Amino acid sequence: MLFFIASDHAGFTLKSPIKNLLEQMGHEVVDLGPTNTERVDYPDFANAVCQNVLNHQGSFGILICGSGIGMSIAANRHKGIRAALCHEPYSATMSRAHNDANVLCLGARIIGMGMVENILKSFCEGVFEGERHLLRIKKLQ
Question: CA–CA distance from 86 to each of 54, 57, 128, 131 (Å)?
């Protein structure tokens, strides 16, 4: 799988470990920034990830901020993006199975790396069930 990843300053400390974990799992990861913990505006990085996901069919995005809420709001403003804020594996599984989520949002001040590993595994292994869920997703477009 191809992942585009970005954070704001609050999510920066989780970004590199997540990128490394995804690469260890065999995925390709493109880091869209930032490159340090200086204050940045999360919408700029959410927009960059979403544009790349929309331009690369079948790819996914990961966005990290302090709570995950800001990134989720910013990402879901893009037509064709279905961003899911997940704090545990079940939400990640269901976001893929029922919502065909293509962007995973995480809160660095809420979850630790151990939980992130479980969430990533669930998200990556998730498969969209289609059928009745597809009809609902079409209503979002």
Answer: 21, 23, 16, 23
